[in-house]
Amino acid sequence: MWDVASDWASDLDKVTVEILVQEGALLPQDFVTIPATETRKAMIITRNVLLESWLFDALVWCYAEGDSQLQVKNGRAYVNGTQVANAASVSPDALNYLYGKMGYKVLAGEDLKYAEAATRLDFSDNGLNQVSVKIEEE
Predict the structure, then answer these.
(1) Dihedral of CA 124/129/132/133: which sign?
(2) Other CB atoms closer than 10 Å to residue 28's CB: what's the count?
(3) Which of 46, 56, 105, 122 is 20 to 30 A away from residue 31, measured at CA?
(4) Which residue blocks in the chain are alpha helix, DSSP H?
């Protein structure tokens, strides 16, 4: 519920209100479900092209929300003392940290091979431009 009040003497058609909200999903997601088989549980994964600016913005949101693990000093972002971003680049550590905050984990090993085979998608690019994460198995 939003509480909005105004002095009725103000001319409301000249008032601009901007509300910025970011809740839960720090990064954009596009889900693909891999059904369960006899030997594997169902997996829900996401594969996105992510811009470094999105990752940096998400880090700033976490910092603004008072995340105790995140520090910003001199235009650089640190997680538990390790630099993960600056004005020019964002490291894979930042991506892992942000997805971890959202309750996901990056696909690796047999899970990654299985997801690639089941979806016929190539998740092998370890850069920030193409990622895959797994929501906990259902």
Answers:
(1) positive
(2) 12
(3) 56
(4) 52-64, 92-101, 109-119
**Residue 23: what residue type?**
E
Residue given tokens 């092209």 in the structure block: 49
With DSSP H G I counted as helix, E B as strand and the rest as coil, what are the percentages for the chain, rounded to 5? Answer: 25, 25, 50
Element (H, E) at 131: strand 131-135
Q: Which residues contact 91 (CB under 8 A, 6 or more apart)?
A: 83, 84, 85
How far is C-alpha 128 from the geometric centre of its chain's CA atoms?
12
What rounded mean pLDDT belongs to the chain?
78
> Residues 38-63: what's their mean pLDDT?
83
Burial state string for 110-121 with b = 16 or more CB within 10 A and e = fewer than 16: ebbebbeebbee
Q: Which residue has the tokens 């901007």?
A: 18
**What are the phi and psi torsion angles at 77 (to 5°)?**
-105, 135
Nearest to 134 by CA among 116, 58, 13, 120: 116
For residue 57, give the H/E element and its range.
helix 52-64
